[in-house]
């Protein structure tokens, strides 16, 4: 089959799309991609024929609905042209406004379309497009009631390079970390997180340095300021900032860590859970529909994570929870076990199997 995958903008929508593209090609299908010029995909070497559109006009639909209406009509025509040229049998969207033009074009042509809902609180684009879609594949059980009988929980497609079969000590050595130290991974998602970075740096000063080390994925924009602060505070003996980790380097970070402190975008939550890594989630408060909070609470309600709202985030609060999990291995390991039990690391193959069955 010829399959178009659409959706991007941020890592939470692009990474599942990349996973699906890889799985579809692995199963012998011909693939293409439709995304946004301004999204992360515009700075990523895509693995297949790609059409990147100027989607600035539809990003803030509620702020300027008239502009968004005409922009969507223009983008839908462009997407329809790309779909027709590729002779797509199916279009699959990974959520977000970036997926709307191609999905609405495919539905207008009477073709088959499928949705992936990555969040516990479904987005507006998927809600609008669900009625004419054949099925909706959800990452969270909490999203199922929104879409009714056509929804099923498959989990979210995650990068296979994020799931490495490597010993923890070996992973630490690969990253230049000490092999025998309790390791905390701090990651703010593909964009980084200033508030999380600042709180983490201050919390580190409050925690005894013996036997602990920190691997901090700061985000490219925040790396230099964090490194300078760490130098000034003399933290570099056990503090290791990096701007960004790609591919298997991120997989090594997951395997190296004993616990994580992170935002709660769907890809981050799913990859942490698949690695059985207990996490303190600090939801990004400005995320659309507060969806990161719902994602985090879906895990914390199962005892698989801890939700710490940014309004409650402080060096004292963060250091207290880190110390609790550091000192109570049973509680930490139980949270990791529950997270792994919740995860669906084979989501990509499940989804490809379901769409192949038709």
Task: Provide a descriptive summary of the structure in words.
This protein is of the alpha/beta class and 358 residues long. The protein has 2 domains: 2-155 and 346-357, Rossmann fold (3-Layer(aba) Sandwich), CATH 3.40.50; 161-342, Rossmann fold (3-Layer(aba) Sandwich), CATH 3.40.50.2000. Helix content is 42%, strand content 17%. It has 14 helices and 13 strands. It has helices at residues 11-26, 65-86, 100-108, 124-129, 144-147, 168-174, 194-204, 223-233, 248-256, 266-274, 291-300, 315-327, 329-342, 347-357, and strands spanning 2-6, 30-36, 49-53, 90-93, 112-117, 135-138, 151-153, 182-187, 212-217, 239-242, 259-262, 279-281, 305-307. The strands form 2 sheets. The protein has a 7-stranded parallel sheet with strand order 3-2-1-4-5-6-7, with helices on both faces. β4, α3 and β5 form a beta-alpha-beta unit. α1 (11-26) crosses α14, α2 packs across α3 and α7 crosses α12 (315-327).
């Amino acid at each position: 089959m010829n399959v178009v995958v659409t959706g991007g903008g941020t890592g939470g929508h692009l990474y599942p799309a990349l996973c699906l593209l890889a799985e579809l090609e692995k199963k012998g299908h011909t693939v293409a991609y439709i995304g946004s010029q301004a999204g992360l995909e515009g700075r990523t070497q895509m693995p297949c024929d790609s059409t990147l559109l100027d989607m600035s006009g539809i990003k803030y639909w509620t702020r300027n609905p008239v502009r968004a209406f005409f922009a969507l009509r223009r983008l839908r025509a462009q997407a329809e042209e790309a779909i027709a040229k590729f002779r797509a049998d199916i279009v699959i969207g990974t959520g977000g406004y970036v997926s709307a033009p191609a999905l609405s074009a495919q539905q207008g042509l009477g073709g088959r379309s499928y949705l992936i809902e990555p969040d516990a609180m479904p987005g507006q684009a998927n809600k609008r497009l669900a009625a004419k879609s054949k099925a909706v594949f959800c990452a969270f059980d909490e999203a199922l009631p929104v879409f009714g009988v056509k929804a099923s929980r498959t989990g979210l497609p995650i990068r296979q390079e994020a799931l490495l079969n490597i010993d923890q000590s070996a992973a630490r050595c690969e990253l230049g970390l000490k092999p025998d130290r309790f390791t905390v991974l701090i990651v703010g998602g593909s964009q980084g997180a200033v508030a999380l970075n600042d709180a983490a740096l201050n919390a580190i000063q409050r925690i005894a340095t013996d036997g602990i080390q920190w691997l901090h994925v700061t985000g490219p924009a925040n790396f230099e300021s964090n490194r300078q602060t760490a130098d000034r505070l003399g933290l570099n003996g056990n503090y290791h900032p990096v701007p960004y980790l790609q591919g298997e380097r991120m997989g090594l970070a997951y395997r190296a860590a004993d616990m994580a402190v992170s935002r709660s975008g769907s890809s981050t939550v799913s990859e942490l859970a698949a690695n059985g890594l207990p996490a303190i989630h600090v939801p990004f408060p400005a995320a659309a529909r507060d969806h990161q909070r719902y994602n985090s609470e879906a895990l914390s309600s199962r005892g698989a994570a801890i939700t710490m709202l940014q309004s409650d985030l402080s060096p004292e609060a963060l250091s207290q929870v880190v110390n609790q999990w550091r000192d109570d291995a049973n509680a930490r390991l139980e949270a990791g076990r529950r997270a792994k039990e919740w995860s669906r690391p084979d989501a990509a193959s499940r989804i490809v199997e379901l769409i192949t069955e038709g």
